[in-house]
Write a structure and sequence with these properties.
Residues 1-22, 40-63 are annotated as: Disordered. This protein has 63 residues and is mostly helical. 27% of the residues lie in helices and 0% in strands.
């Protein structure tokens, strides 16, 4: 996450060590196994992440 944020303009010395990775701006480009960006908790305008959550799940193994 830190590497991604630094590549996308995060300046920890200027922003107090925080970086906002919003779904709207970063969901298509941010990839981290087991992690999904969503704006859902930030307010009612956040999109429903259900489809992306389902797509992020590994396929069930046969057997």
């Amino acid at each position: 996450m830190v590497d991604y944020a630094l590549r996308h303009g995060w300046e920890p010395e200027r922003r107090g060590g925080t970086s906002l990775l919003s779904e709207r701006e970063h969901a298509d480009g941010f990839r981290l196994p087991g992690f999904l960006l969503t704006d859902r908790l930030r307010g009612p305008e956040g999109g429903d992440p259900t489809t992306r959550v389902v797509q992020a799940q590994p396929a069930p193994s046969a057997g």
